[in-house]
Amino acid sequence: MKCCGSSVELKQEEGRTIENGTQIDLDLDHLMVQCHHKRIKRGASCGFSTNGDFEYCPKCGAQLQKT
């Protein structure tokens, strides 16, 4: 998730089914959420996003803005 850096892990079978283009119903009670609470920073000029400890964009050199 771009807002906080969290991720959700699916069962391997569910992930493969989605990769194959099949739409499935996910059981939200069985999702494994990994919450990282990291702030995303975005380059003002190029839009590059990172959650690293950079003050300036490694791509364009512009100062990063927190989103």
What this model shows, in words?
This protein has 67 residues and is of the alpha+beta class. The chain contains 1 helix and 5 strands; from the N terminus they run βαββββ. The chain is 12% helix and 21% strand. The protein has a 3-stranded antiparallel sheet with strand order 4-3-5, with no helix packed on it. Strands 1-2 form a two-stranded antiparallel ribbon. The longest helix has 8 residues, at 12-19. It is elongated, with a radius of gyration of 16 Å.
Which geometry do the CA atoms define? elongated
Can you give the helix content as a percent range?
10-25%
Average pLDDT score: 80
The tally of helices reads 1
Give the N-terminus to C-terminus distance in angstroms. 13 Å
Low-confidence stretches: none
- Provide the β-strand percentage band: 15-25%
Strand adjacency order, main sheet = 4-3-5
Layout of strands and helices, then pairs:
Elements: E1 7-9, H1 12-19, E2 32-34, E3 41-43, E4 49-50, E5 64-66
Antiparallel strand pairs: 1-2, 3-4, 3-5
